[in-house]
Amino acid sequence: MKDFFRQSMSWLHTWVGLLLGWVLYFMFITGDLRDLARVGESAIKALAPAGAEGWWIDLPTGRNTPNLTVWWKLPDQEWQEQAIDAQTGAPVKARATGGGQTLYRMHWQLHYLPRIAGEWIVGVATMSMFVALITGVIVHKKIFADFFTFRPGKGQRSWLDAHNVASVVTLPFQFMITWSGLIFMMFTYMPLIIAAWYGTGEASRKAFEDEVFRPPAVTERSGQPAPMVALDKVVAQAQARWGGAAIASLDIQHPNDAHARIVVNGDYTATPTRHVATLVFDGVSGELLAEQSAEQSAAKAFRDLMLGLHEGLFAGPALRALYVLSGLLGAAMIATGLVLWSVKRRQKIEKARAAPHAGLRLVDKLNLVTLIGLPVAIATYFWANRLLPTDMAGRAAWEVHVLFLTWLALLLHASLRPTQRAWIEQTGLAALAFGLLPLLNALTTDRHLAASLPAGDWVMAGFDLSMLALGVAFAALGWFLLQREGRSVAPASVQRPTKANRGIETTESAEATS
User: Fold this and answer.
1) How sure is the predictor about 406, in pLDDT bands with cuts at 50, 70 and 90?
2) Contact 44/55 with Cβ under 8 angstroms?
3) Per-residue DSSP letters for 100-143?
4) Where are the chain's structural domains?
5) Nearest CA to 164 among 178, 151, 177?
6) Cβ contacts of 179 within 8 Å, gap of 6 or more
7) CA–CA–CA angle 293, 295, 296 (5° rounding)
8) What percent of the chain has pLDDT over 70?
9) The model scores a pTM over 0.85
10) Reading across the β-sheet that carries 80-84, which strands appear in turn?
11) In 352-448, which residue ranges form alpha helices assigned H by DSSP?
């Protein structure tokens, strides 16, 4: 019975990991406040059209919001934003770009799909990963011993060792990031809980969101015009009440209306709990109407903690580096699991002296175009950021189009070329695409490594150095695959059984069988 349970968990672990592995890999690979308030107020009054139903001012609080940014919203339209020069109050002119935020949103919304469809696909993949993590722990009874074991050049055994090491070393992080990802979208994945108390339909959902998330003392527009109180006076009151604690944003609801409200929000990125106090002022008189404590219900506190840990906005440089390393090892865990599936089945086919079946060939191609093709496509996204004309219509959208068109071209390439050669060719392309990005940056901007390193501009220098490191890593992988090709061993296949690996499928069946 015990062996049957572990065998069934192994089957579930294998197939859940394969069927959603490509989606999961995609997800792993995405002055003074009063003076600033005065500058932001002047800018938004000049930029926002009359009749705006809301203004929003993001104040600079660090790396997460480094710029003064104003937002405004007209009825039945999306929010519009504009970065502002904090010294002059003039709009900052920058090229239209999706930047890192597009990749971030792609990580949990995918792209070219309705938002709800993308969220459900990501949710199914996330739950599948959670199942794979649990079954992986059950299957690998020597899980901690596996952490210290890696035997290179042993075919299937080597891939399994690599998979185990990448999994075990970041296991707590993978559990946290997966579970918190589900909590992030729990209102989408469990809508019946809301419906049971508030009913169905958009109005019922809005009633729920207003009760849970809407600040106190906020009311509807009166329709009677009224002049606004100066925002710097409101900020001064908030600073005095909070003892100088950071203020992250000002939410101005119903501007220039008798029922205008100014909601002052603390900086929720300061701690992983995301607990943030809120003050609500009358937008006409400047009177403090309500204060919402940072500490609320236990359920909301737990949700906020999980969201804070998932985003990691509170982390300093060392902890951010650990987040990045853990994310990369998570991608490696998924990648080695996908390759291991192919390696094992190819070994069985070679033992039987049969031809690879269509399913194995399809998985081989999808592994290649996901594990190597996707990084290449992301690199071309950065190339497009530098090469597309700055006055091009729809420029930000075309950056993303370039990414997916490149990915499609690499899928076509993988389908037409022998798998062994396609791995080498796409890996070489990845090395060039990433390795040459710093040179492209030097040719198109004045913030290249020769300037950014002496100036201590670690945002640009860090990006360029990271791209160089990726280029070197892909070049090393390409060289390794090229050397193996000379010995007639494909990257997604293994050597014929030898004394070193002949007994794996019998002695390790619970750890690595389907």
Assistant:
1) very high
2) yes
3) HHHHHHHHHH-SSS-HHHHHHHHHHHHHHHHHHHHHHHHH-TTH
4) 2-29+103-169+315-512, 33-96+215-311
5) 151
6) 130, 306
7) 95
8) 84
9) no
10) 80-84, 68-73, 54-58, 247-253, 261-266, 278-282, 288-292
11) 358-368, 374-387, 395-416, 419-435, 437-444
